[in-house]
Write a structure and sequence with these properties.
single chain, binds shikimate-3-phosphate, five-stranded parallel sheet
Length: 170
């Protein structure tokens, strides 16, 4: 069994990073961390409020600081935000400090999983489905580039995804 110092989950909104991360951490005996939650805990406000007052640029700066700090820990499963790979320093931290798993699913599936929730400012638009497609087209090559393992979460439950990851780490 490969036991990397840390496991970093990357991938688009709605891929299941937080849900899978929580269960994977429990199954492996790692601590679970979530970079968006950490940002919200530190600022005391939610993600849409940060985007409203500081723009995406301000959010990315906070995200970079949090990722840099969390990546120094050992024995964590970290669920990152969908845009984490856009920042070169983050890509470098993830590669240096752990094993990166890209949770992959289609924009249609992402939409189905995120449609009812307004907590994601980048898709709080008139046509969220198209936005998800555009973001995916831009980011997919970067997710693949940073990934040590790619796992599909398309139309499947968390337990099955966690089982596959454990099997492939053996
Ligand atoms: C973002 C994804 C969100 C959150 C922020 C920006 C993105 O995280 O970090 O709204 O750029 O794709 P999730 O992937 O957990 O939804």
């Amino acid at each position: 069994m490969i036991r990397p110092p840390n496991i970093f989950l990357v991938g688009p909104m709605g891929a299941g990073k937080s849900t899978v991360g929580r269960q994977l951490a429990e199954a492996l005996g790692y601590e679970f961390r979530d970079s968006d939650q950490e940002i919200q805990r530190r600022t005391g406000v939610d993600i849409p409020t940060i985007f409203e007052f500081e723009g995406e640029e301000g959010f990315r700066k906070r995200e970079r600081n949090v990722v840099e700090e969390l990546a120094q820990e050992d024995g964590i499963v970290l669920a990152t935000g969908g845009g984490v790979v856009l920042t070169p320093e983050n890509r470098q931290q993830l590669a240096a400090r752990g094993f990166v798993i890209y949770l992959h699913c289609s924009p249609e599936q992402q939409f189905a999983r995120t449609a009812r929730d307004r907590s994601r400012p980048l898709i709080d638009t008139e046509d969220p489905q198209q936005r998800l497609r555009d973001l995916m087209a831009e980011r997919e090559p970067i997710y693949r580039q940073v990934a040590d393992m790619v796992v599909s979460t398309e139309r499947r439950g968390t337990a099955s995804v966690v089982k596959e990851i454990r099997r492939r780490l053996e």
